Amino acid sequence: MPEGTFSPEHHNAGVSLSFDELKIGQEFYIPSRTMTDALFSAFQLASGDNHPIHYDIEYCRRHGHPNMLAHGFQVAIQSAAGAGLFPHVIGDSLIGFLEQSSRFLKPVYVGDTLYPLLTITELTPQRTTGVLTVKSTIHNQNSELVMDGTQKYLLRLGK
């Protein structure tokens, strides 16, 4: 690109890989995030979920919880692939997000810090596309696995 010439098509975060260049076991870290009161309030507002387990500290204590309990979907969205480098690595190969599943294994409370990770577990080529499956895991600050699941993406084959 000549000096002084700008093209939005060349403005990207790095070199993207094609479906064929991805490898099983490849990992994509998503930045950690501490679950604050503000995040709880924002999620409650966005989701409309008004169960007191998510916003009433005294209700939580009466039911054996030390603090407010995170919504399950609030935990799951911490594994959103777009929050990390994953979408930049697959670049223009991405056609769509196909599927997601989650298992909630430990409670997440206000003040917990979550560490999401995506790991490629399966690459299923088709005629002109391929399905990329990643395992999603989220650990807390105590190295406890609080959520695991899978996500599937449809990608174009080749560059």
Secondary-structure map with pairings?
Layout: E1 27-29, E2 33-34, H1 37-47, H2 57-62, H3 72-76, H4 86-90, E3 94-104, E4 113-125, E5 129-140, E6 145-156
Antiparallel strand pairs: 1-4, 2-4, 3-6, 4-5, 5-6
The N- and C-terminal alpha carbons lie at a distance of 20 Å
Globally, the shape reads elongated
Mean pLDDT: 92
Strand runs, count: 6
Q: What is the H level of CATH, i.e. the homologous superfamily?
A: Hotdog Thioesterase
For the record, the CATH architecture stands as: Roll
Query: What percent of residues adopt helix (DSSP H or I)?
Result: 10-25%
Oligomer: single chain
Proportion in β-strands: 25-35%
Low-confidence regions: none
Report on this structure.
The model has no long low-confidence stretch (mean pLDDT 92). 23% of the residues are buried. The protein has four helices and six strands, in the order ββααααββββ. With 159 residues, the protein is of the alpha+beta class. It has a single domain (15-156), classed as Thiol Ester Dehydrase, Chain A (Roll). The radius of gyration is 19 Å and the shape is elongated. It is 17% helix and 33% strand. Strands 1, 2, 3, 4, 5 and 6 form a six-stranded antiparallel beta sheet that branches. It has helices at residues 37-47, 57-62, 72-76, 86-90; strands at 27-29, 33-34, 94-104, 113-125, 129-140, 145-156.
Quick tags:
Thiol Ester Dehydrase, Chain A, 159 residues, alpha+beta, six-stranded antiparallel sheet
